[in-house]
Amino acid sequence: MILEEKLWKSFNKALGKYQLIDEDDKILVGLSGGKDSLCLLEFLARRSKIHVPHFTVEALHVRMENIHYETDTSYLQSFCDNLGVPLHIATTSFVTNPNASATISDGFPSGKQKPACFLCSWQRRKQLFNLAQELGCTKIALGHHQDDIIHTALMNLTFQGHFSTMPVKLKMRKMPLTVIRPLCLCQEDDIRVYAEQQNYEKQLKLCPYECETNRTTAQELFDRMQQLNPEARYNIWGALEAEGKLVEY
Q1: At residue 247, does pLDDT exceed 90?
Q2: What is the value of pTM for the model shown?
Q3: What tens digit of pLDDT does each residue of 160-172 get?
Q4: Cβ atoms of residues 87 and 77 within 8 Å
């Protein structure tokens, strides 16, 4: 099977299996500019051309002022234009001092330092949720693939002491939005090769914190598990499904 067909099949299987898209959905995609979010946007835009179910797609790229993490926004604009997807660009920042008013006002507990990755992610999500509500969106789509979801499960089990992960479908309780991850059945290696085939443009600078998190450790652990048992991926996924960790209402 051609790689594009394999990914497209996995993408559509996820949409159906987890009922990720409903009729007349308006979906906002978090577009970081990395391979995963570009692939997600491309597939959602393509899928929206199929009239059942009918839905629309828009994208948001968030720039963080105090992190040297850059994406060529002109490339993102061209990418979205070619897909017929409206692109929104927001700029924000965060403070690392837990006693600063901006940090407390965003709901962080005082007296405890939060890591840069947490603060950055928090602010990006805040921009996503705010714009989604302003636009009247029903869904927010994120580009996490199956490896991301499994790595999160391993991190939570190892460092937090509980078996959970990023849900494939998460209905928010405090706002009329649902978070979906349509690439949940796609493997990272396949997306990486596909991105090269499609000549996706890479970020100008990668995040300086991306190699300093427990996620790297979890990835190494998962690689070792797959060496021990090639079925490890499917066993972990099956366990998450059996325990109801992939869909939350």
Answers
A1: yes
A2: 0.90
A3: 999 999 999 999 9
A4: yes
> How far is the C-alpha of 153 from the C-alpha of 237, rounded, in Å?
10
Phi, psi of 228 (to 5 degrees): -70, -35
Indicate the helix (H) or strand (E) that contains 208.
none
Question: Which string of b and e fits 221-245 if b means at least 16 CB within 10 Å?
Answer: bbeebeeeeeebbeebbeebeeeeb
- The phi, psi pair for 178, rounded to 5°, reads -125, 130
Give whole-number Cα distances, 183 to 9, 88, 101, 143, 243, in Å. Answer: 11, 22, 37, 6, 20
Q: State the pairing for strand pair 169-171/55-64.
A: unpaired
Over residues 85-100, the mean pLDDT reads 78
Angle, helix 3-17 to helix 35-48, in steps of 10 degrees: 70
Task: Tell me the pLDDT tens digit for each residue of 45-54.
Answer: 999 999 899 9
